[in-house]
What we know:
Elements: E1 2-6, H1 13-24, E2 28-30, H2 31-40, H3 44-54, H4 61-72, E3 81-84, H5 90-102, E4 109-114, H6 117-125, E5 127-130, E6 137-139, E7 158-159, H7 166-180, H8 182-188, E8 193-197, H9 202-219
Helix pairs in contact: 1-9, 2-3, 2-4, 4-5, 6-7
Amino acid sequence: xxxxxxxxPGAGKGTQAAFxxxxxxxxxxxxxxxxxxxxSRQTELGKLAKSxxxxxxxxxxxxxxxxxxxxxxxxxxxxxxxxxGFPRNVQQAVALDEMLKAEGMxxxxxxxxxxxEDEVVKRIAGxxxxxxxxAHVFHVSYKPAKQDGVCDICxxxxxxxxxxxxxxxxxxxxxxxxxxxxIIDYYKAQGLVVTISALGKVDEVTARAMQVxxxxxxxx
Length: 220
């Protein structure tokens, strides 16, 4: 299957992408991983992307599109893939359609993870990270530390990252609504969008997603 995963920040896209890709035996292709890999390997695209990032500018769509195209042409992606973070806007969605059409392929589904905005803010703004080890993550509501402000694992100080503040989260949601959400309407016109609730436990959300994807495959 060739799937695009969409949803607002805090919807759990990264977590669900990993589980779904494993269940479907297809590679999980995220833009974050693409940028890190290309920059680490010092590819021409990586160097170009880094030059924009170092200057504090957004990486142009054509660079992101070229990275995605290169990754989707790798042998492990020939039988399908799950895209996470790409396409990020309608221009990228059109470019993706054109890329696939040139190869005689098309997308099978756009999986839209739906989460109420207040829940997104609660999920992200409630995160607390250990200053000693960023892998130690807690949540004031869902995974509270035994002692307020103190990491259960190493005793380090727990703090809220600047990009997890409610103000920043709401700004990120505005960007999502303005730039990324329009691709849902773009793909709805093609009959590709399936929407599921991303509320509940991780395995419950995965089960919902697998059910609608299996149903979509069966309907074809």
